[in-house]
Amino acid sequence: MSEYNAMELMICVAARMFEDGASVSVGTGVPCAAAALAQKLYAPNLLIMFEVGGVAPLLPSMPISIGDSNTVYKAIQTVSMPKIMEMNQRGLVDYAFLGGAQIDMYGNINSTVIGNHDKPKVRFPGSGGANDFASFAWRSVILAPHSARRFTNDIDYITTPGYLTGPGAREEAGLPANTGPYKVITNLAVMGFDEKTKRMKLESVHPGVTVDDVIKNTGFELIIEEPIGKTEPPTEEELKILREEVDPFRVVISRSAE
Hints:
alpha/beta, two-stranded antiparallel sheet
């Protein structure tokens, strides 16, 4: 079995979830690497969209920014940011990839401030397009390092809506039915959301990780229903394409996932 790091594992796990022909909105970094790997290996007709306007590029390698020309390489369209958001509002985006500084049990995300909004301890970049995409894409996927400080119900600000306060809350807030958080992929585990309660639930733990490790690093009570699955490690083929074609300069895969 090949050696791999936690970042490579997270990217490979994320790449496996796409159906061929699905559409996904990504930024640069880890989500982009996962989409590119999926397009090269599992979903050749995966339609990748960048919020700055590239629609359906065939990514030759990792863009270094959303303004990189790779984001429009052999694209079928280059449109404006408002047009991308309009496509999202019309229900044309299947998946949105997100990160966050704090994430609660309903998948609500804070990427704005830690502490008081007017006098924060830490100020983050804010929503960007995350709120729009998580509001209207059919499924949101969160990738983040796993720690009790990050996975907490004491989030200081909701930048991006998950299931808000639970069942029915998104619809009451005016968001489309049957949309919302879908998976959370961390350096420890894969989590989904309970259909009835909309709370986060543990689905599988990564190789070398125990359920107790996940519990200790989560600041709220996860739904845990036996049997808990084991995440499949990256295959030789996944690692080869990821390292040689998707990210040959190791821009993303050399980063820490913790």
